[in-house]
Write a structure and sequence with these properties.
The protein has about 375 residues and is an alpha/beta fold. It is about 50% helix and about 15% strand. It has 15 helices and 9 strands.
Length: about 375
């Protein structure tokens, strides 16, 4: 019997826990042609949620393109990524892909190749010497033109949107602002997994995308939603788990979908067929996960400077809402001064080791947090 708990990669409809309201809100934004910034910490299921919402759109009324910005490094690669995603969303044969590419993206040269299965794939290169980016505004106006010609609504999804902050200038942001303002029947959804960067983009009055759309923070899932979800999956596979164990499990995972499903996966794996999960089963599953990750976590820990280790050690011993810049925390953890803590925090945020919520900081990887706590205590 296969394990009923899925983690990592794109999650399909049957593996979702709750998210009913979030799905409704996202679908409504797409239907209304809104501009929406959807952001959360990593592995919280943004991409899976958006792809599920896209799959529910009536195909006769909607076209959509999903643009992964993670591989991009500048304006030119951004334009190429948009052109490729849009073209592949409109056509599936080589001839039609070429026709679409030439029709909507005249500043780029389309080329057709075949993947390992023999299916056509399109790629784009820059015209001329390749040093000058195509007219980005023309590329970004293509969705509006497609909506007019095809008489359908278009949804554009940009994943890992914070990537454009690393381009070296704000030209892409400024061009996006101009492009998305006047396109009818086109929805733009921007996904980001580095909350402090995404918030900076649309809340900083000096940024081009300031208030360019609505913002939708995606948070963990409440324990009351996990209770029936986890119970039913154990029951359907001939195993049982009580509410107290699930509540403790969710306290450990923080309700984060990835870590909750990962821990449930390990608990289910250890629990014998027909048996009931006990506290000892959960403890064994935690030990198993930490043992599997020990090598990676040890390497990560050794990469930190002394003050960073002291900060993390102090953080795991605090309750939520710890005043990490306060004198008591600084003195207790031998951190010299509030300014040195500020430098530590900025570095760990940049490395995605920690995150913050409502002014409080926490270790982003829930299992690494357990590992640090065990190491400290």
């Amino acid at each position: 019997m296969s394990n009923p708990f899925k983690y990592g990669g794109i999650v399909n409809k049957g593996s979702f826990c709750n998210r009913k309201q979030e799905l409704k809100d996202l679908s409504r934004a797409m239907e209304n042609g809104d501009r929406l910034f959807l952001y959360s910490e990593r592995r919280l299921g943004k991409t899976s949620l958006v792809k599920l919402a896209l799959s529910r759109l009536p195909k006769k009324e909607y076209l959509y393109a999903y643009v992964d910005l993670w591989p991009t490094d500048g304006e030119a690669s951004f334009a190429v990524a948009v052109a490729k995603a849009v073209t592949e969303s409109l056509a599936s044969t080589a001839d039609k892909m070429l026709a679409v590419g030439k029709s909507f993206f005249g500043g780029l040269i389309p080329t057709i190749t075949a993947d390992s299965s023999g299916d056509p794939q399109i790629s784009f290169t820059l015209r001329g010497d390749g040093k000058n980016a195509p007219e980005l505004l023309d590329v970004l106006k293509a969705p509006g033109e497609i909506a007019k010609r095809r008489n359908r609504k278009v949804v554009m999804v940009f994943d890992e949107f914070q990537r454009i902050l690393e381009y070296g200038s704000d030209k892409t942001e400024r061009t996006l602002r101009s492009a998305i303002q006047d396109q009818e029947n086109v929805s733009f959804v921007f996904l980001g997994s580095r909350k402090h960067l995404i918030q900076k983009m649309f809340l900083d009055q000096n940024r081009p995308l300031y208030r360019a759309g609505g913002h939708y923070p995606l948070g963990p899932i409440e324990t009351r939603a996990w209770l029936p979800f986890i119970k039913s999956r154990f029951n359907k596979t001939g195993k049982t788990i009580n509410s107290d164990i699930i509540t403790r499990l969710c306290e450990i995972s923080g309700g984060h979908p990835f870590y909750t499903q990962h821990l449930c996966h390990a608990v289910w794996e250890i629990c014998e067929p027909g048996a009931e999960v006990t506290g000892e089963t959960l403890d064994e599953a935690i030990s198993l996960l930490l043992e599997r990750e020990s090598y990676a976590y040890t390497g990560l820990w050794e990469s930190f400077a002394v003050n960073q280790r002291r900060f993390l050690s102090g953080l795991v011993q605090e309750t939520s809402g710890a005043q990490v810049f306060g004198g008591a925390f600084v003195q207790k953890n031998n951190l010299n001064s509030a300014s040195s803590v500020q430098r530590v925090v900025e570095n760990l945020l940049d490395r995605d080791v920690i995150d913050r919520e409502d002014g409080s900081f926490f270790i982003a990887d829930r299992f690494f947090q357990l590992w640090v706590k065990k190491r400290v205590l």
